[in-house]
Description:
Elements: H1 2-8, H2 12-19, E1 22-23, H3 42-59, H4 68-80, E2 90-91, E3 96-101, E4 106-116, E5 120-126, H5 134-146, E6 154-160, E7 164-171, E8 178-181, E9 185-186, H6 194-213
Parallel strand pairs: 1-8, 5-6
Antiparallel strand pairs: 2-4, 3-4, 4-5, 6-7, 7-8, 7-9
Helix pairs in contact: 1-5, 2-5, 3-4
Amino acid sequence: xxxxxxxxxxxxxxxxxxxxxxxxxxxxxxxxxxxxxxxxxxxxxxxxxxxxxxxxxxxxxxxxxxxxxxxxxxxxxxxxxxxxxxxxxxxxxxxxxxxxxxxxxxxxxxxxxxxxxxxxxxxxxxxxxxxxxxxxxxxxxxxxxxxxxxxxxxxxxxxxxxxxxxxxxxxxxxxxxxxxxxxxxxxxxxxxxxxxxxxxxxxxxxxxxxxxxx
Length: 214
């Protein structure tokens, strides 16, 4: 089913039509991006610095391609966020191939996934040749999340290709499900935003636990 869904969804128009979704453009819809973000500890800041240093070293040779995004960026972030320990549980469902018809070329890659407590999706976009822009892949990423089991009325996601992160949200609490997403947070510049990414990840982790307790 997942393969069929992601193959069918190529645009936000397809997404809204096939899943009867509404897009929320109100900034308050995704309040988890800014409200009550906790300051990082010195240990967490040190961990962020190590991830950035390794990223810069390997990125000098080109894009982070298949297999390296999770190893260098995603896994260390999940550990810093505390998702490898109680009360969180991580499972790894089957990933899915992704094909995007860009204006210049056909982009082919793979969505590698981890799920935290069935409600927080960690989506790594990986390719053998070139990085897939996260923004271009958003419709298929949402379709992948919608095709999977979940608990409660809220589901969150974070998608990355190594260079940038975009956060996703699905809300099923009303008659018509709604979706929204953040701006891109970049890991490339010297004044990178990986610290903000970690703060938001921790916020979403708390939201997932709270949702399942309600």
